[in-house]
Amino acid sequence: MPYPENAPIEEWLAQETPEDVLEPDLPIIDPHHHLWDMRGLRAPWEQRVYLCGEMSEEIRASGHNVVQTVFAQCGAFYRADGPEEMRPVGETDFVHGIAAMSRSGRYGSARLCTGIFSTADLRLGKAVEPVLQAHLAASPNFRGIRTGFPDDLDAEYRDGYAMLGKYNLSFDNYSPDYERLPALAKLATAYPDIPIIVNHLGGKIDPDAGRADVSRWQACIDSLAGCPNVVMKCGGAQQRVGRSWEPPFHMHQRAEGPLGSEELCDLLYPFYRYPIENLGSRPLHVRKQFPRRQGIGVVPHALEPDEAHCPENGVERRGEGSSFQRHGSARLSATAVRVSILGGVLAAVKWGLCGSLPICQGWRSSR
To answer: Is the pLDDT of residue 243 over 80?
Structure first.
C-alpha cells in the first residue's frame, strides 16, 4: 500500500528512464537488504516504510528473477522491554514473520528473508551466548550478526566473538571508516573459522575523492587479501553516510531524478573493480539496493553497477561449474550473484539456502 511518508522518494524515483532488463530469467538471491517502519523515528533513510509488500512489489517491478533474499540488521523492531542485551532479538522475531508472509506465496514467488542477520553485543563475552541462542530459537533462518567491533579487542570481547564459531555463525561488519579494515583483518586471522562479510566495499565511497584517499582505501582493502575467511559485499557503495555526507547523485543533490546505469557505472566502476581484482579468488556478495531508501535509486535493468561494461574490461564471465561452486564449503560466505562487474553470471548462493536452484545443488548446509 502507498504510504504518504514515502511520497518524496517515490516521486523522485518515478523520474527514472526505463531500461531493458538483461537476462531476466536468471535465478538471483539478494544477499543483503533491509526492512523497517521508521515512521515517527529520526532516521536518515528516505524510504520510511519498507515491509513485505513494498519489497515484493519492487522485486516484481525490477524485472529480475529474485528467488530468495537475505535480511541484514538495521535496528528494526527491537523489543521495548526485557533485558537490554535481549532486545535486538525482536528484530529476528519480526523478520521471521516477514519470511512466513512471503512463504505463503501471496506476495509473489520470491521468498524473502530465507537468511537473517540480526545483532548481539559481543562485548558481553561468554554472556552473549543466551542472546545468540534466543536468535536461533526465534528463527531457523538466523545466520549470524551484523555489528561493529571495539577498538580494544580485549579478552572479554574475544570470548564473545568466539561464540559465533561455536554456533556456526558469521560476522557481518560495516563501518564508513575504511581505516578499520586492517584491525578487522587481525580479527579474521585470529579466528579463521568464523566467516567475516565486509559490507559496502569497506567504507565510504566518494567518487570525488582525491588520489591519496583512494590509494589509502586500496591499501586497507589489500589488508584483507591474506584472510580467506573474509568476503566483501560489492553493493551499497553509493549510499550516504548518516546525515553528514551524501554522494553527488543523491536525491537531495540531483533534482532531475536518478542516474542511468551507464553514468552510474562510469562513476563507480573503478571502486568495484579494485576489490574484485584483489579479493576476487573468493566469493563476493553483490546485490540490488533494496530498499532504494537513501535517495540514490538503482536502475532495475542490471545489478550494481552495469553488466554491459564488463566484457570490454576483460573480466571473466563465470557460470555453472565455475570457481564459485568450488567455494560451496565456505559456509555463509559462499554467495555470488549475476552482476555486471563479474561479466555475466555468477550463481546466487547463500549458505543453507537455495538447494532447488540447479547452480546451487550440493551447497546445502547440514545445520
So the answer is: no
Lowest mean pLDDT among 3-7, 213-217, 269-273: 269-273
**C-beta separation of 341 from 313 below 8 A:** no
Q: What are the residue ranges spanned by the domains of the chain?
A: 4-357
Quick check: 120 pLDDT over 70? yes
pTM equals 0.82
Q: In a 10 Å sphere around its CB, with 0-12 CB exposed, 13-18 middle and 19+ buried, how is residue 319 labelled? A: middle
The pLDDT value recorded for residue 290 is 56
pLDDT, averaged across the chain = 79
Q: How far apart are CA 216 and CA 342, in angstroms?
A: 24
- pLDDT exceeds 50 at position 282: yes
Label each residue of the chain as H, E or C. Answer: CCCHHHHHHHHHHCCCCCCCCCCCCCEEEEEEECCEECCCCCCCCCCCEECHHHHHHHHHHHCCEEEEEEECCCCCCCCCCCCHHHCCHHHHHHHHHHHHHHHCCCCCCCEEEEEEEECCCHHHHHHHHHHHHHHHHHCCCEEEEECCCCCCCCHHHHHHHHHHHHCCCEEEECCCCHHHHHHHHHHHHHCCCCCEEECHHHCCCCCCCCHHHHHHHHHHHHCCCCCCCEEEEECCCCCCECCCECCCCCCCCCCCCCCCHHHHHHHHHHHHHHHHHHHCCCCCEECCCCCCCCCCCCCCCCCCCCHHHCHHHCCCCCCCCCCCHHHCCCHHHCCCCCEHHHCECCCCCCCCCCCCCHHHCCCCCCC
Domain 4-357, CATH class in plain words? alpha beta
Region 292-312: mean pLDDT is 42
Residues 45-87: pLDDT tens digits? 889 999 999 999 999 998 999 999 999 999 999 999 999 999 9
